[in-house]
Every structure is written in C-alpha cells, then in structure tokens.
Specification:
The chain is of the alpha+beta class. It has 3 helices and 4 strands, in the order ββββααα.
Length: 136
C-alpha cells in the first residue's frame, strides 16, 4: 500500500480526531473498537485513509496472527511496538485494490450490524414491557 503518515500510539484519554481505536489487553487484543477504552491504542492518519486503515486492522485481528505476539500470564496483551510492526508489515504487503474492496464491504456490514443491534434492543424492550405488563 501507499506510504502515508500512520501513527500508532497508546490512547491517552484525550479525545482525538481521525482515529481508530484498537483493544490492547485481553483475549481480544487487536480488535477494532468503535469507542475508546482505557486499554486501547489509537491509529491516527488522514481522514480519507481511515476506512482502508480500519479494514486493514480488521484483517489483522481476524487473521489470528496477533495471538503469537500476546504477552502476559494472567491478562494477555500486545505491546504497542509489536502491534505497530504487525500492522505496518500487513499494510505494506496488501494489494491496494483488494483492501479498498474489503473496506467497502466491511463498512456496509458494520452499517447492517448497527441496524440489527438497534432492532435487537427494541425487541428486548418489547419483551421486558410484555413481561412487566403481567405484573399489573
């Protein structure tokens, strides 16, 4: 892929723009997050490249290649330098056309997931309402 400014750092708790959050601790280290948490890294770059970077991070997480980099005996984690190296190695090895297609597909799927989660929340509210109506 094209070389551009990609910064991967430990999340410092301050709101940032043009950022993707990556879970850094636990069995799901490397997972792409929608919201920051205390145990995450940030990937910062130009806004126009964020969907492609997000797709690359998804590919890295789902490939399972990060599991060999986990450290820790009680709570596993991945160091920021290990994650940075793994991400950048994948970034440079990817076919740009394929990752753009993947980014588009992942974006569509994430939108569908958001709709389904809203529907699930509404159905759970309906279940609660129905159950509590029996108590009246």
């Amino acid at each position: 892929m094209k070389t551009l400014s990609i910064q991967i750092k430990v999340y410092n708790g301050n709101p940032q723009s043009n950022v993707i959050y990556i879970l850094s601790r636990g069995n799901h280290s490397g997972k792409v997050l929608n919201q920051p948490c205390p145990n995450c890294y940030t990937i910062q770059s130009d806004e126009s490249f964020l969907p492609v970077i997000r797709a690359t991070a998804h590919v890295l997480y789902l490939s399972g290649s990060l599991s060999v980099l986990f450290r820790g005996s009680v709570i596993e984690f991945i160091t920021v330098s290990d994650y940075r190296n793994a991400f950048l190695n994948l970034w440079h090895s990817l076919n740009s056309e394929k990752i753009l297609e993947t980014a588009s597909s992942l974006s569509t799927l994430e939108n569908h997931l958001a709709v389904i989660q809203k529907q699930q929340k509404l159905i759970l509210q309906l279940i609660r309402t129905t159950a509590f109506s029996a108590l009246k």
